[in-house]
Design brief:
Shape: globular
Structural class: alpha/beta
Largest sheet: 7 strands, mixed
Strand order of the largest sheet: 1-2-3-4-5-6-9
Helix content: 10-25%
Number of domains: 1
Number of helices: 4
Length: about 150
């Protein structure tokens, strides 16, 4: 039984999620039941490589336009540059990426996060999509949008 599982190809997403969670005292509450992760996070490179994924989870966070067969999930949240994605890039400025939550989402604990924009710290040379994946995972794990910048810095 796991709260979340990350499928990645060296992007550092799981490490960033764990660092962000530890800054807030770790995970709280029930996360999974039935032996499946409450949250499955798929990185851009893992999706591009066609990484084999578990058959099911409660919520899946995946790159928009991901090919193949996604896991069976009660909820799917996409991230990427397309306006059709749930979590998108709104704009960029020096040292920051503005992300837009295009539709409300429900965290693994059942809290609703409303549509909004928020700033994320973007280090020089850092890739944008893995940063969006980290932000999306932290949102789904209960980190409020206004605390994401601090959790990811």
């Amino acid at each position: 039984m796991e709260c979340f599982q990350v499928f990645e190809a060296g992007e550092g997403i799981e490490r960033a999620i764990l660092r962000g969670l530890s800054a807030r005292g770790g995970l709280r509450g029930r996360c999974a039941n039935g032996g499946h992760p409450a949250l499955l996070v798929v990185s851009p490179r893992a999706a591009a490589r066609g990484t084999r994924l578990p058959r099911q989870c409660r919520t899946v966070l995946l790159p928009g336009g991901m090919g193949g067969v996604p896991p069976r999930a009660a909820s799917a949240v996409s991230y990427g540059a397309s306006p059709r994605d749930s979590l998108t890039i709104s704009s960029r400025e020096e040292g920051a990426l503005w992300a837009a939550l295009q539709r409300e989402l429900v965290t693994v604990e059942g809290q609703v996060v409303e549509r909004q924009e928020f700033s994320l710290p973007l280090a020089p040379g850092e890739e944008e999509l893995p940063l969006l994946a980290c932000a999306g995972a932290l949102l789904l794990l209960g980190i409020p949008p206004e605390e994401l910048g601090q959790a990811l810095s």
